[in-house]
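Renewal narrative, Specific Aim 1. Our central claim is that a sequence can be written position by position from structural information alone. The example that follows is taken directly from our test logs and has not been curated for this report. It begins with the structure tokens describing the chain, in the order in which they were read.
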């Protein structure tokens, strides 16, 4: 019986690719600050998907894939940027933690499981998954270990993982076990072509600033196109904005891995003003989320300006960055969220600086205009 010819591969977003300004606008709706990073990402992602959309019109010039490396401290928006890109482009998206990966044959997770997560996100539609986005977090944790004697010890969670990742990041036809490879050895493999999958890698890269600073202080570079004196504008940029492939090599990445991540984006730590904006401006801002939760109970949640400032001040010096804001707000609202569903007649809840600082609980306002706090006032009211 003659088999029907396979339909031509049609990319999910072939209808009308978003231009960089549209991608930037969508990123700006969810991610605060990081303007330069958003611009670089918008152009890189547009060029990547333009390359896949144009695959049906081959030319003499072959366009290479440009995967992306995000470098920045915890809580500055790396994962959110990747998630927003996938949401904007309406493509399957999967997240993987590089710390769980090991070289094939060793205890840990195989790199092929990254592709399995993407296929699952595409509802097992392999052709759809072949145009998705994979975000590999904590990539800095698989840097080559210092002091490892390679003649004795194999670096199976560092350099070994880098070697394993090369083939799928570069582009290959990978065999993916649908149930996981190690516990179910006798299973049919799914084949997926990774040439059009965009890989976005991220990490805090603690210590990279020191590597860059030493190179800049020396005023020289082993890479010719990076050599020369720095301009005044370059000197004013943050250190990470001036990182080069040479710095990543010294940090512990093999040359092949550095070459497969040609687009590098440095994200800045969030300052007080940026954290204030994180609380209120994005579409999924933390304040908006809690206001929505309270509105389900028929209560209007109000944050005073000084309460937002207090929350931002508390998060500025915290190592988790913007992630700390949710903890701060959650802690301030815990008691009232516990008691409020059991209290009738409350229409408004007010949070001020004292609440954020932990000195008191939020003020509740009833339909009659009565104001009280969840403390002794509530016990007397309940009695």
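The sequence written for that structure reads:
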């Amino acid at each position: 019986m003659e088999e029907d010819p396979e339909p031509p591969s049609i990319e999910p977003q072939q209808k009308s690719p978003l231009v960089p300004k549209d991608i930037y606008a969508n990123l700006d709706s969810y991610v605060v600050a990081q303007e330069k990073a958003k611009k670089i990402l918008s152009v890189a992602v547009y060029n990547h998907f333009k390359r896949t959309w144009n695959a049906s019109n081959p030319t003499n010039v072959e366009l290479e894939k440009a995967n992306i490396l995000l470098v920045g401290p915890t809580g500055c928006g790396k994962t959110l940027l990747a998630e927003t890109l996938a949401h904007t482009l309406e493509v399957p998206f999967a997240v993987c933690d590089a710390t769980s990966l090991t070289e094939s044959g060793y205890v840990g997770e195989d790199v092929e499981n990254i592709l399995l997560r993407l296929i699952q996100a595409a509802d097992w539609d392999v052709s759809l998954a072949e145009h998705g986005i994979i975000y590999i977090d904590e990539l800095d944790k698989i840097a080559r270990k210092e002091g490892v004697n390679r003649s004795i010890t194999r670096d199976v969670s560092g350099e070994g993982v880098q070697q394993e990742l090369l083939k799928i990041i570069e582009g290959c036809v990978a065999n993916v076990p649908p149930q996981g490879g190690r516990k179910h050895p006798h299973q049919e493999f799914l084949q997926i072509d990774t040439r059009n999958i965009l890989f976005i890698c991220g990490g805090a890269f603690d210590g990279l600033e020191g590597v860059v600073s030493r190179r800049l202080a020396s005023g020289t570079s082993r890479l010719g196109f990076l050599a020369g004196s720095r301009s005044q504008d370059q000197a004013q940029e943050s250190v990470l904005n001036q990182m080069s492939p040479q710095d990543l090599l010294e940090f512990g990445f093999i040359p092949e891995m550095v070459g497969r991540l040609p687009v590098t984006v440095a994200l800045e730590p969030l300052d007080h003003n940026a954290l204030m904006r994180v609380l209120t401006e994005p579409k999924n801002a933390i304040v908006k989320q809690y206001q929505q939760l309270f509105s389900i109970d028929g209560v209007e949640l109000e944050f005073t300006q000084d309460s937002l400032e207090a929350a931002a001040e508390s998060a500025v010096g915290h190592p988790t960055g913007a992630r700390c804001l949710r903890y701060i707000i959650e802690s301030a609202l815990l008691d009232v969220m516990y008691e409020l569903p059991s209290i009738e007649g409350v229409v408004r809840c007010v949070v001020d600086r004292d609440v954020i600082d932990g000195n008191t609980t939020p003020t509740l306002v009833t339909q009659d205009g009565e104001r009280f706090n969840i403390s002794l006032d509530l016990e007397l009211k309940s009695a």
